[in-house]
Amino acid sequence: MTLFDTALPARASRDLSDDAVHVWRLPYRRGEGRAPLRRLLAAYLDTTSDRVQFHDGEHGRPVLRDAPTALDFNWSHSGDIALVAIARGLPQLGIDIEVSRPRPRALALAERFFAIDEHTRIAALPDTQRTDAFLRLWTAKEAVLKGLGEGLRYGLHRVAFRLVEGEPVAHAFDGPVGPPGAWQLHPLARPDFTACLAWRGAPRRVHWLHMTES
């Protein structure tokens, strides 16, 4: 199981090399908006959170505006957890998280949004395994599409995966997302959430981090 190392953002920011990706787990409260993201990025930019400004891309993806240092990031939140991926020189970077909870409509959603083969494979699983399989595929698809800078309207069925020993493996991609082999995937499943980190480019080291107070 992947463990999150406890760290201070300001200290960790100095260790962000060009061959690494930092992924932070942050507490998230409904109504906070982008405040947790702004505070974390401020440490990497060596500035104050009120000076971290965003503009939204074509599909609503936040991008830094007038940042003193080039920094690529993506974030996702679900329930009371947020995950933030940070890197340098990695513009096609995406992450997605879904907290653990009952998903009675998982099979119906897979039939509506997934590739036919994906839905068929989920339907063949025992009821107790369907939600886990659905979330692993859903978060992998979302992470890739967020890295691409597209939303759901791109079509989740156009980025198809297979589950190999429970882990999502890119199988068939269609359109500008490019070939499956161009993407790196780092899925993470824990008792309280399922997530996936994705980027287009060469392999990098991934550091999973959890913020400490001091």
TrEMBL record:
Domain 4'-phosphopantetheinyl transferase: 93-163
One GO biological process term: lysine biosynthetic process via aminoadipic acid
Domain of life the protein comes from: Bacteria
SUPFAM superfamilies: 4'-phosphopantetheinyl transferase
Gene Ontology CC terms, in alphabetical order: cytosol
Enzyme Commission no: 2.7.8.-
Molecular-function annotations in GO: holo-[acyl-carrier-protein] synthase activity; magnesium ion binding
Keywords: Transferase
The UniProt record lists the keyword Transferase: yes
Record-linked InterPro entries: 4-PPantetheinyl_Trfase_dom, 4-PPantetheinyl_Trfase_dom_sf, P-Pant_transferase_sf
Cell cycle recorded as keyword: no
Protein family according to the UniProt entry: Belongs to the P-Pant transferase superfamily. Gsp/Sfp/HetI/AcpT family.
Protein name in the entry: 4'-phosphopantetheinyl transferase
Organism: Oleiagrimonas soli
Lineage, uppermost ranks: Bacteria, Pseudomonadati, Pseudomonadota, Gammaproteobacteria, Lysobacterales
